[in-house]
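Researcher: For the record, we're logging two predictions in this thread. I'll number them. Prediction 1 follows.
Model: Prediction 1, sequence and structure:
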Amino acid sequence: MDGVLFVHAHPDDESILTGGTIARLREAQVPLTVLTATRGEGGEVIGPLSSTLEGRREALAAHREGELADAMRVLGVDDWAFLGTPTGGAGQLPERRFEDSGMEWGPDGHAQVPADTPPESLCAAKVDDVAAYIAAVIEDRRPRLVVTYPAGGGYGHPDHVRVHEATLRAMSKLKRKHRARIIYVDTPQDAVDQMFNVDRPGFDLTGFEAAQKVPTIPAEDPVVLSQDISAQRARKARAMAAHATQLQVAGDFYALSNNIGTVLLDTEYFTAPRGASGADILEFLVEDDHPEPPTPAAMVFSSVFLGFIAGALGTFQHLGASLFDLAGQAVIVPWGLLLALALAGCVLWYVAEANRSTAALVLSAVTMSLTAFIGSQPALLPGGSVLVTGTLRSVAWLFGPMIIAAVLSFTLPSLRTNRKL
C-alpha cells in the first residue's frame, strides 16, 4: 500500500479544496491519484465561452476534461481519472458515465438535488453502484490514505454528499483487504470567517462581491491536519486558474460563478472521526504498525477460545485465599480472585487490541462469565460439586469479566477511535 487517493465530484474541486496538498505530495514524489466522479457538465459557465458552452452538456464536459488536464499538469499529477472509465474503476466493471447532478438552493440555505437532475447523474445512481467503481480504484491503486468530502459535502452539494457516501461504502467493503485511512477536506468555522474577510488589502481591486451569507456546513469531526501550503500556494492558484469556465483568480482572492470574493488561504484543513493528527500530510503515510484485523470467523474463535481458557482457570483458582494476623486482626487476602481478575483483564485487553473490536471484547467476557456460571451448577459437574459458590469472591468472579470489558470498551484508544470508520 502506498500513496494517496483524492476522490472529488467535479473538475475544479481538486484544485480549490486540495490543490496545495496535492502539490506538496508531488513535490515529495508521493504517488497519488485524483479520481473525479463527474465532468461538471451541469455547472454554470463564466468567461468568454459562456455563450457557446452554457447548457450544452456534452460540449461543456469535453471542455472541462481539458481544463482538468491543464490543472493536473500544473500540480504535477500524472494519474487522474474520471469515475467509470477504464482507469477509473471500469477494469472489471462495465464502463459508465456519471454526470453532474446540478444543484439548487434549499430552504435551509444549503445546496440540494434539483428537480430536473438527469437520469444519468451521480445522485440518480445507487450508492452501491458508485461505491463499486470507487472500490475498484482503491483495489487497483492500493492507497494508504483516501481524501474526500465530509458528510455534509462542505455546503451540501448533492454530488459532494454522494461521493462521501459512496467512498465510505467502498472502504467499508474493502476494509479487511485494503486498510486505507480516510480523512475529509473540511474547513473549521474560524477559517471560514477568514475566507470571506473582505477587509483584506486588495479586495476592492478584484471586482468581486462580498458574501452576504456563507452556506458552509460546520465541520462535524475534529481537525487532524492543518496543511501549510504557503510554499505551494502559487501553484494552487495556477491550477485553479486553469478552470477558467468555473472561477476567476485575482491576487489573493478567487470567485466562482456567483462572483463572491473568497480569500485564497495558506492552509488546507482536513478532519477525521478517528485517528492521530499530524502537522504535515506526509506524516499520514507512515507505515501502520497494527497488523491486519482477523477475519470474522477467526475473531469469534479466538475470542471464545481465550475466554473459555481464562474462565476455566479463573473458576478453578478464584476461591484461593490466605489468612494473616495483622496486629491481632485476622486479614483474608483473596489472592485467587485477584489473580483470576488479573488474568481476565489481560486476556480481554489482548482480545480487544488484536481485533480492534468491541464485539470481540464482549464475546470473550461473556464466555468467561458463562464458564464461571457453569461452575456454579452441580448438575453439570462430576460428583455434584460446585466450583463457584455463593461467596462474595464467587459473585465478584462471576460478574468481574463483564465489568472489566465495560471499562475497557470506554477507555481503550483502539476501541474509542474505531467507533466510526
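Researcher: Logged. Prediction 2.
Model: Prediction 2, sequence and structure:
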Amino acid sequence: MRRTQSGGGRRSGRAIAVLLVALGTLALAASATGARQAGVIKIGSITILTGPTAQIGLETARGAQFMVDYVNAHGGVLGQKLQLVSDDDANNPQLAVQDAAQLIQQDHVVAIAGPTNSVSGIAIQSLQAQAKVPAVAYQSGAEALTGTGSPWVFRSNTTLNHHFDALVTYLAKVKHAKTFAFIGWNLAAGASSLAGTQYGIAHTPGTKLVYQTQLPLTTQDFSATIQQAKAANPDAVLIGAPMPFAGVLAKQIRQAGWNVTLGATGDFVTGDFGLFLGSAANGLIMTDTGHWQCLAKRKNGKSFLAAWQKAFGRPPVANEIAGADAIGVIAAALTKAKSTDGQKLDDAIRGMSYNGLRFAAQWDSKGNLRRTPIPAVVWAKDGTQLNDLSCDIFTTARGGK
C-alpha cells in the first residue's frame, strides 16, 4: 500500500512520492475528531496507482490533488485547509479494504474520494457504514456499486450502463450503425457495459446486437473472438474493458484488416490507449467522463481550466477532470453541512445541487447521479489527441430528449 499526504501538510509515502506530487482527495471521518490535525480537514483517496490499469488512477489522483490545492488557494473550507491522504489499491478490493481501514481508523479522514474500481467500492462499504464516512466514487461505473443499498456511497460520474446506451444511440444516428457486436471483460463493469449496450439497442429502432462475449481482463489473444465477431458482420464493435484489454483488442482488430467502426468509453481508457494504438486509434469514437472544451463553456469549469493550464501548460484530460470533480463534491458538502460530521456530510450530498466543473449534479436515493451530460470524443493524430464531438451525446443523438 503506497501513501501520500498533501494539501495542508505532507508525510512522505513509499515509492510514489515523486509521481504523485499533485495527489489530493477529500476524506472526512466521523470518528476521533480530537485526533485530527488542527486547521486541516483530511480527505482520503483510494485509486489505482500501480499495475496495468494505473494510468487511470494516476490521472485521477493528479486531478484530485489539484482541486485540493485549488480549493485551498481560494480560502479552503470552513476556515481550514484541505489535505489529501492518498492510498493505492492496485485495482485489488482486498487492498482497498486495508486502505479504507487505515484512512478511517488512523488518518481520521472525514470522507473518501474513490475507489476507481466498483468492486473495491463495494468492498469498503461495511467499513464506511460502521464509521459513518461517506465516499464519493471516482469512475466506478458498474451498476452494482450503488445496487447494494448503502447510504454512504455517491457517484461523481454516470454509470457505464448510461455510457454504452449513449454510445449505441450516437453511433446509430451519426454513423448509421444498425448491427452491433460487444466484446468486454467478465467482471461487474463489463456486465454494466453490456447491459447499457442492450438497453440502447432496445430503445433505438432498427438496431440489433449480433454478437456478444465477455472475457478475462488478462486476455492477450483475441484472434478467435475477432473471427467470430467478424462472421456476425456488425456495423460497429463496442469495447467494454480497460487497458490493456481494450488496447490489445482494438489493435488486433486493425491488424486483422478489419476496418469496422470501433466504440469505447473514456470511463475505462486513458491516454495510454491512444499511444498504444498509434494510427490505429484514428477515428475511434468514445463517450468520455469529461472534456476540457466542455469545461470552458461553464463558469466554474472555465476558471478551473485557466488555473490548470497555468500550472501544467496544457488542458486537463478526462480522468483529471473526474478526480477534481469528486473532490469538488466533498468540498461543496462540507460547505453546505457547515460540519465535518459524517452523517451531516452524507445528508448534505443527498440534498444538494452541486454546481461542478462539468455539470450541475443532484443525486437520487441510491447515490446515483441524476441525468448529466455525457461528452463524445474521437481519437486523432495517431492516438495523441482527443477531439470533442459533442458535450452531450444524448442531445446530439436524441434531439435533447
